[in-house]
């Protein structure tokens, strides 16, 4: 009986939060640092904290549904940094990569998925099977009519992304026959942005990080310069719809100054 009352109260509160949101004041692009999978597993009493990666991967599917329901057409998720892949214990990394292959990539590649997949990061640091699964998901959705765009940041480093963008721009200019003085004169922030992993997409309006950590850890260093930040104390697998809606409500209530 008590559980039923709680469920009813939760549903009513969720509907109330949703009704308070003005579609005109929601982010066009939402970025998320999905942190705290292992800590959640320990909190829940699992003997092997790596099981949190599976719950975290499963939960992404649900959160993407919330984004689609809210009409948020661009989402970027921070799955793993270059250091995560290179420096963590091999068994943990292998488990995380399997979850990405079996849950994330497989589901996103389905014809019914409303998401068009874009990859952001150094795929060369990933295991062959993970790289292959992600590229298949990207290829399967490349020519689709999907109205939602999902950037998967994996093997990612924000500073390295900027270096790569500069390198790509310089190479493009050089092939066009421009010298260094001409390139310097033609250099603009917009032209650099076009060579980032998220080139052609709007910068994130809101960045959410779960687990209570108050830092971005090199995530979208360039793109998030004027983003609003929301830090949530719950771990990623425990990130509820009310937490999501509260973050959107907080964003909508802010007076964005864009650096002013």
TrEMBL record:
Species per Swiss-Prot/TrEMBL record: Actinoplanes hulinensis
Enzyme's top EC category: transferase
Keyword field contains Magnesium: yes
MF GO annotations: ditrans,polycis-undecaprenyl-diphosphate synthase [(2E,6E)-farnesyl-diphosphate specific] activity
Subunit structure: Homodimer.
Pfam families for this protein: Prenyltransf
Co-factor requirement: Mg(2+)
Swiss-Prot/TrEMBL keywords: Magnesium, Metal-binding, Transferase
Binding site for Mg(2+): 35, 228
EC number: 2.5.1.-
SUPFAM superfamilies: Undecaprenyl diphosphate synthase
Active site residues per record: 35, 84 (proton acceptor)
Cofactor: binding comment: Binds 2 magnesium ions per subunit.
NCBIfam families: uppS
Function recorded in the entry: Catalyzes the condensation of isopentenyl diphosphate (IPP) with allylic pyrophosphates generating different type of terpenoids.
Family (UniProt): Belongs to the UPP synthase family. Z-FPP synthase subfamily.
This protein's encoding gene: uppS
Keyword Coiled coil among UniProt keywords: no
Protein name per the record: Isoprenyl transferase
Domain of life the protein comes from: Bacteria
Organism phylogeny: Bacteria, Bacillati, Actinomycetota, Actinomycetes, Micromonosporales
Record: residues binding substrate: 36-40, 50, 53, 81-83, 88, 209, 215-217
HAMAP family cross-referenced by the UniProt entry: ISPT
